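Q: Predict the bound structure with adenosine-3',5'-cyclic-monophosphate.
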Amino acid sequence: MPASELYKKAAYFAAFAVFVALLLVIFPFIEDLLRTYLSGKLGLIISPEGVVTVEGGEALGKMTQTWVTLIVYGLNIVKIILLMALVIASVRFINYLITHTIYRNVPQGEISSLLKTVLSVIVYIVAFFIIFQSHFPSVQLAGLFTGSTIIGIVVGLALQDTLGNLFSGLALSADQPFVVGDVVNITNRGTGVVESVSWRGVKIRTFQNKLLVISNSVLGKETIEVSPKDNLNARLVLFNTLYSNSPARTIQVVRDAVRQVENVSRKIRPVVRVRNLGDNGIDWEVKYWLDDYNRHNDTDALIRQRIWYVFQREGIEFAFPTRTVHLATQSENALPEERFDNFAERLIRVSIFAALSDDEIERLASSSTSRVYAPGEAIVRMGKDGNSMFVIIRGSVSVQVPEKSEQRIIKDLGENDFFGEMSLLTGEPRSANVIAVDETEVLQIKKSAFKPIIENNPALVDSISELIEERKVLLATETDRQDENQGDGQKGLMRSIRKFFGLK
Ligand code: CMP
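A: Predicted complex:
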């Protein structure tokens, strides 16, 4: 808060207080004038309580006496109003000072504003009692409030809900079970993010972007499940697999897939466990922790999507309620003819395989496997061992290296490009991360399939090492990283490829 605003407020308050004080100072003079005028002209005596009597017992018209009494009372009421205005202005200014100076760095929740309002109202009521009694000592205010059964019943009935809300609000403010921004689930009523808490009730923004308004008195009777915003809240996502799939493998691949999903906390490892051995297959649950609980629906959905992709690649199958009898299973190697031709067609288009014979291309195609990756998934991870390379047949990828807390993009690759050749050919750890940008299908070629091709095509080593050298230079300049083997150049690279493949 700028200091100038505080000075402005202080100046307004001081001006107002001086103005009211002046009026209050002038008041006794006005009263004196009135008294002198009344006793001089009409022979009336006014007691400090405002009781009007006639001096010397002289009769006075009833109307005149009533009018005089009204004027005297009126002056007293104006005085009470002025004093109350001063009290209200002072309380508001003190409130402002407390919230903007002493508690400047403490977040001001709606609940603390509720407490402030209640305290202020109590001060106003007490001040009113004191001021009123000092001006009208003969009127029994307390008696008026407590003694009148009718007023009590009427006020009680009228304020029943309001007071209920107010007291439930006070109980909530003392407890502080949730604050603005937390996700709450109120039994039988709904789930959403707390938007505001006031003395009347709570506003909750549901995940369908509707506003749920619940009064404090209703809220006080419900069970509330709170997921605080600054807490690592957990979620469960369920899925199932066939009994023929290995549980150990399922745990490994699902955990790896879930860990990569955005908004899944890196602080706690996700738990993948068997929930039940069901009628149709193994029932599983993934327990994971979220950074931002507000986005739990999207994160759950992304996790389910990633599980689908990883199952697709790893040949794990979902169990579904069916009584279909499988008489034959299809092995991964027995590719349909059409699909196999398609692979060969794709490999011909790859620059480094241009010199290969049809027979070699077909052999390479028959030993390749197709894999699908979701957008954002890592296909190759930097520093890991790798004994296969990949040809992109659909989608695109980005070659990245970590730089401080971010990823630096070295190159984008698309259809018919290839990657992963560096580790495959040299045996070195992966030099970069390769991340799928779109849904990407790749052909994976293993070292065992590559070896006979290299043995029959010594010239292939030259062209590949030339390309690897270019990529390494780009990688080194982009990252300011000095490669250990860089000084050896292309010749050194060719030597290490030959050595790695056991060639002369
Ligand atoms: P590899 O080291 O096995 O794993 C990471 C892959 O990223 C690497 O093989 C290359 O295929 C690829 N890569 C590294 N640097 C570049 C680059 N400068 N241009 C294109 N691809 C690259």
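A: The first strand starts at residue 44 and ends at 46.
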